[in-house]
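Priority: medium. Attachment 1 of 2:
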């Protein structure tokens, strides 16, 4: 009945004056515009209404009772409702207003064989159907191109639950399906049926694919073995990084005209590193980090903020980059709160970019910034020179690495759909980030310092029990996290950190650890609350609490000790105390 014209007859059609006063003029006018005899569906008390309507209309209409109609052959031209059924009248008014057709999602009613009984107009538009699809199998209408067999979907028996899946079609669109059971009454018989909602998730899937590609790009740009790091010169690393950025910017983001500059922290000059498609004069133009006078690039480096230029001809900050540019995106390349450079993309079309493009460039910029950070650190000193230099490198890489791991975990915990390939790749990203961190921490110390560098500090005695142990530090104090990274990393521990309890829980749910260090003052939980939650997630992992000496306003330590807490560390850390307590925690067998 989706294509029917709806006539709502107000009144009792079993009486002498069926319908409203305009019914009979309408019936007379129908003769002039309808060459064939139309079909009228009567709803309500049809047992009395249908004979009366047949008597009144004669041969002008084919009058059918709603009780005699069997879906999917319910197509009629007009509907009359006996208003003695007030709820039925209300429901039909909702349909007559076109609300089902106006829904942004496709809605279908299916029988238990997944044959279509009814659908709204939105569904027809989603699948671009021309003919009648009522009565067809859902599989034949949607025609998945990814091998999905819709007839094999397992639908929960509980009507409040739904089966969800995503299918790709031959036209490269993706549809999100949610299918639930329901019961319908046809001709007095109760039958099992299915309610299906359908929405176009093509853009969502493309965004997920692009996001996944960006993280894979991070793998490719940061995946250097220790041998490659030590064997390559600084110039070779720069060349390799340029090649990777150029390829990934074009293939992953689809940007053909862009420029990357690095910031000289002493002079505040933004030095050209890589460009493609820019005007030659613009590519060599001297720019500085400044609020004005240095284009969008200088402003972004100065303000540390993203910038979307929708029209270069009217933007007061814009200075010509590409000859035909009409819009641009610019993001700062940052590690923590430090600007390393800028990433600028331009397009010949006005309004060519939107917020999504800016978000993806920002995410990709984090990958580039992390690689630049490692490159700059490696350029300052060979990681095989001295233990002191290794410590500094570990300190600089630690927080960006933690941020990437936390970001991967955040996506894993909130990702809708849970496609195995996406989850596998996110785990792969986390694994590769850890490899980079381990490579930095395992650099050996030579006997002689490199020219121009300070003499190495004495080699520290190793603690074999700590080598390779996984440590999670949950502390909102950046200094405490850095100290834990340095002191434990020097002993070969694999240290990862989170600055909130929520981030710590997520990390613990997704990755194994040998010991957890938690501060008693976190922004979203006190130490005892965090202690209890960690115990719920993992009842065996050793927990060490940390506090500024003498401070425990929430009595977290006292409460936790009553429930088995064995160790407390006081900040600022004393090297020996930290190493002793962690070593004790990872070597003491768990209580029976």
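Attachment 2 of 2:
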């Amino acid at each position: 009945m989706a294509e029917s014209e709806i006539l709502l007859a107000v009144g009792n059609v079993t009486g002498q004056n069926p319908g409203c006063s305009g019914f009979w003029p309408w019936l007379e006018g129908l003769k002039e515009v309808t060459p064939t005899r139309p079909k009228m569906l009567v709803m309500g008390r049809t047992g009395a209404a249908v004979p009366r309507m047949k008597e009144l209309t004669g041969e002008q209409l084919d009058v059918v009772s709603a009780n005699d109609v069997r879906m999917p052959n319910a197509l009629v031209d007009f509907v009359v409702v006996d208003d003695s059924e007030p709820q039925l009248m209300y429901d039909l008014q909702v349909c007559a207003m076109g609300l089902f057709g106006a829904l942004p999602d496709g809605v279908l009613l299916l029988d238990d064989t997944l044959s279509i009984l009814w659908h709204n107009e939105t569904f027809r538009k989603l699948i671009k159907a021309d003919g009648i699809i009522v009565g067809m199998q859902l599989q034949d209408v949607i025609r998945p191109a990814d091998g999905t067999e819709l007839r094999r979907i397992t639908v929960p028996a509980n009507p409040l639950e739904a089966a969800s899946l995503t299918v790709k079609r031959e036209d490269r669109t993706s549809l999100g399906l949610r299918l639930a059971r329901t019961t319908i009454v046809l001709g007095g018989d109760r039958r099992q049926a299915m309610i299906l909602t359908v929405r176009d998730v093509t853009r969502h899937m493309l965004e997920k694919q692009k996001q996944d590609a960006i993280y894979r790009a991070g793998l490719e740009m940061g995946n250097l073995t220790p041998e490659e790091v030590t064997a390559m010169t600084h110039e070779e690393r720069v060349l390799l990084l340029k090649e990777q950025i150029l390829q990934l910017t074009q293939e992953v983001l689809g940007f053909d005209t862009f420029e990357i500059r690095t910031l000289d922290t002493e002079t505040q000059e933004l030095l050209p590193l890589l460009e493609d498609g820019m005007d030659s004069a613009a590519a060599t133009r001297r720019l500085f980090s400044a609020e004005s006078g240095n284009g969008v690039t200088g402003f972004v480096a100065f303000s540390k903020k993203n910038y979307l230029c929708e029209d270069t001809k009217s933007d007061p900050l814009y200075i010509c980059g590409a000859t035909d540019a009409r819009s641009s995106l610019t993001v700062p390349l940052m590690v923590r709160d430090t600007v390393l450079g800028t990433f600028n993309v331009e397009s010949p079309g006005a309004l060519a970019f939107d917020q999504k493009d800016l978000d993806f460039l920002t995410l990709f910029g984090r990958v580039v910034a992390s690689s630049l950070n490692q490159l700059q650190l490696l350029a300052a000193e060979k990681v095989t020179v001295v233990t002191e230099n290794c410590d500094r490198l570990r300190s600089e890489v630690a927080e960006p690495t933690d941020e990437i791991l936390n970001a991967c975990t955040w996506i894993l915990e909130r990702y809708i759909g849970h496609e195995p390939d996406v989850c596998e790749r996110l785990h792969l990203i986390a694994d590769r980030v850890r490899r980079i961190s381990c490579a930095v921490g395992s650099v050996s110390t030579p006997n002689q310092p490199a020219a121009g560098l300070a003499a190495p500090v004495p080699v520290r005695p190793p603690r074999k029990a700590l080598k390779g142990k996984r440590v999670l530090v949950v502390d909102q104090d950046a200094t405490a996290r850095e100290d834990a990274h340095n002191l434990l990393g020097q002993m070969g521990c694999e240290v990862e950190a989170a600055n909130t309890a929520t981030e710590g829980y997520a990390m613990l749910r997704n990755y194994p650890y040998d010991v957890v260090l938690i501060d008693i003052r976190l922004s979203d939980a006190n130490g005892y609350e965090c202690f209890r939650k960690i115990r719920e997630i993992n009842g065996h992992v050793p927990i060490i609490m940390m506090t500024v000496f003498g401070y425990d306003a929430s009595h977290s330590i006292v409460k936790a000790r009553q429930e088995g807490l064995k160790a407390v560390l006081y900040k600022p850390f004393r090297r020996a105390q930290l190493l002793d307590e962690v070593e004790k925690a990872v070597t003491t067998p768990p209580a029976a």
